[in-house]
Amino acid sequence: MENDVIEIDVQKELVSAHGRMTLTIKVKLLGGELVVLFGESGAGKTTLLRMISGLTNPDRGILKVGNSVWFDSDAGINKPPQERNIGFVFQDYALFPNMSVFNNVAYGQTQGDKCYVNELLQKFGLEELSARKPDKLSGGQRQRVALARALARKPDFLLLDEPLSALDGDIRTSLQNEILKAHGINNATTLLVSHDLTEVFRLAHKVLQIKNGTITGMGKPDQLFLNNQISGKVQITGSIVKIQKQDAFYLLTVVTGMNQILKVTAFQNDIEKLSEGDRVMVFSKAFSPLILKM
Amino acid sequence: MNVIPVLIEAITCSDGVVLVDMQSDNCWLSAILVEGDELPTWLTKGAAVSAVFKESELSIAVNLSGKISLRNRLPCTVQKIECGEIMSVVSLKFGQHLIQSAITTRSAKALELNTGLEVTALIKANEVFLVQSIKNAQAPIPHPHQL
Amino acid sequence: MPTPFIETLLLTARLATFTTLILLVVGLPMSYFIAYSRFQFKPLLEAMVSMPLVLPPSVIGYYILVAYSPNYWFGRFLNEVFDVRLAFSFEGILLASVVFSLPFMVQPLTNGLRSIPISLREASYTLGKSKTTTFFKVLLPNIKPSLITAVALTFAHCIGEFGIILMVGGNMPGETRVASIAIYDEVQALNFDAANQYALTLFLISFVMLTLIYTVNKKSDTWKMM
């Protein structure tokens, strides 16, 4: 799998909240990569994941994993999800409520290999919970079960649909590690949908940026998200909400995209080009900021 | 912010830390940058770029003597002093360029700054930014959803 | 030789049990189809299944009786090929009761299947499991309350059915004389004690069945928690 190339070239008409759009994705992925699909909601990220898994059919195109053709509209090939060796982690995890944690994981296996199920449970720290039903688990525990279950089939391709969106703060961080672990277990090519930059920078080997159904950018997170024309490595964008004259200089209040408030000093020659409401980038050298653990 | 055009003379890399030596108006300047594995394409020897630094990071010395770690020493002439209650902004002529320094009013008084006085402006190398070209740098501000 | 009272009750139980079993076999695939297929004329099928809920039993009974008659193709076919005459026989009321109780089985099952998030089925498919495996291992166990409701409702409804049995089966002891008809018969004959015996038995059985349904439905907040 590791050297296999995954070739995706698909199109599909979609009716989204913003009206009709055509999802047009053409990309080649290397086996073993961890790729994050990044973009606003409604951009077509989940649909792409579903088309790869066979849960949604593209209108036309080709989907090839290594030498195996999963979808080819011209040749009339369309493998059902059962025949595509994938692991899918749903946004709501979709754990089977009637089965224990153990059985949820074991269900994903072709032959009942109890040892491997136990190995997975152990890797994700679920041994103690193996007899519990999903409704007796916390959100983070459910996510771990979903990951273990998706790996039970030893998939070539691991697809994760915003697996962390339902969780907050600290759990998110620790579960990002679990995702890295999941990716490491078989070195399955992993495609993760996210709109969280923290996730992108922590997890991605490569980012596919999708906007209105097309790929608008691709590359390493650094290349894609840091403005490369400035040597300042700390870059924050925001809007100026207030400009105050203070003593011999000015104090700007900037609200960032993450809704944080920054206060920045500026001088006469800066102010001449700025007014309240302007979108700005606040930047500093990687040296300058101090850092404090929270 | 202060912007002066510079010509890159030498680049020294070590594990992602980059020392850039450059010249502006016959004065040597250096900057220390932290870059990734690859340098941006515009950052090469011989390239004309802009050096950028903040007013508040620029110090002023009169009759500088003795040893000092700062190697960015810009010979300047005082053009104008704008005094605030606590801070003062001193406008300096450096070669063809006008730069500003924000220092405390107390210091400005202690230095006995006057229009026409020859001074040395000092800035630490890690406070100097390099920008491809200031016009380009300001134009593409990424959309908030991308950041 | 059991007393007529016991004989009637056994017959009633037999009718209800067979009807429920047949409907389980027929109702599960039908509910699956109604719940998930994108068949264009599905509303037509749904309407047909639910007709017994709104039509008087006599209307359905009349049509069934007509169908059983050797004058029409269905009755003639049965008569000629299998030498079977359904009117006024146990098999006849069994078939009629299957038709008439269909919505009581299909509706709860359909609702149960529809309430399962689609991602559960899809998760099973992505884990390599066929639709059949998914149905028995994932869907069915997760609609247990609906399944119990459907079975109990169908069973209780069969026990209580009167009009259609009378139309199709008449009142033949040991063959078509079920408890509800026996009550009517005993009242006509002014045997109020016997009528009371039947009535009380039916009352208790129905009451127990319904209590069971509500208990089950209360216990399982199903899996909205998930």
Question: Could you characterize the architecture of this molecule?
Answer:
The complex is a heterotrimer of chains A (294), B (147) and C (226). Chain A contains 8 helices and 15 strands. With 294 residues, chain A is α/β, with parallel strands linked by helices. Chain A folds into 2 domains: 5-225, Rossmann fold, CATH 3.40.50.300; 234-284, RNA polymerase II/Efflux pump adaptor protein, barrel-sandwich hybrid domain (OB fold (Dihydrolipoamide Acetyltransferase, E2P)), CATH 2.40.50. In chain A, helix 2 (101-107) runs parallel beside helix 4. Chain A is globular, with a radius of gyration of 23 Å. In chain A, 37% of the residues are buried. A 5-stranded antiparallel beta sheet of chain B has the order 3-2-1-4-10, with no helix packed on it. Chain B contains 2 helices and 10 strands; from the N terminus they run E-E-E-E-E-E-E-E-H-E-E-H. Chain B starts with a strand and ends in a 9-residue tail after the last helix. Chain B has a single domain (2-146), classed as RNA polymerase II/Efflux pump adaptor protein, barrel-sandwich hybrid domain (OB fold (Dihydrolipoamide Acetyltransferase, E2P)). Chain C has a single domain, classed as Orthogonal Bundle (MetI-like fold). Helix content of chain C is 78%, strand content 0%. The radius of gyration of chain C is 20 Å and the shape is globular. Chains A and C meet through strand 7 of A and helix 6 and helix 7 of C.
